[in-house]
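User: I'm writing a short methods note and want a consistent example. For BAH domain-containing protein, I'll paste the sequence; you return only the structure tokens, no commentary, since I'll be parsing the reply automatically.
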Amino acid sequence: TTPPSKHNYKTIKNVKYSDCDIFRIERLWKDEKGDRFAFGHHYLRPHETFHEPTRKFFPNELMRIPLYEVVPLDLIMGHCYVLDINTFCKGRPAGADPQHIYICEYRVDKSARLFAKLAKSKVPPVCLKSYAFDKYDQRLKISRTYTPHGPVKGSSVCRGRGGRSAQEQLPPPAPPATTTHSEDEELPLARVRDTALASKRAQQKASLNTLLLRLLARLPSKQPLDLSYLLEPGRRHRKRPAILSP
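Assistant:
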């Protein structure tokens, strides 16, 4: 059995442009058999990248990815335009359909996880002459939104499958118990635990004081030094006045 052949612009009937890959052509050529090919790199839509649900995008934003490929020219279904933000707000290419105009400001790595702004030298130039570019009477004002996901619900977001919030994944809370003996039974246990911790801390403090006093006694100093301020938090060493010193 032969593998099924790919569709091209002649065989496919109903084209969904939202399912097509966005590809920037950098070079065209024809081989010895007469087959035509295109070489270039891809762009990714927001839902095709790995990012946090709180990240905002423009409705028509793309990310450049360093994924280069050679494709047959028959696989190209249409013509679209990828502009930077400044050019997009000024106008649009002459005769361009607004549905096929996109914005690109960021690039991602090959794993589509790390975002970085495109350098100005990497932005493709656009002809802004009157015969090739239609300028708007008033500059557009655009803003990013939670386009792929919608607004994030809840304050905490789970990083598991689907990116649902923690409030959606947690089951409803169980009704409170009707017995009233639990609080009375837990209270003595809490008191015993606090008492044990306090006695343990007192023993540790006493052993530490004994150890420090032994170390201070071995120091070859002419006058005894008062280092008790180290044992109590919030106190600092103050120099003794010369009048009070022996």
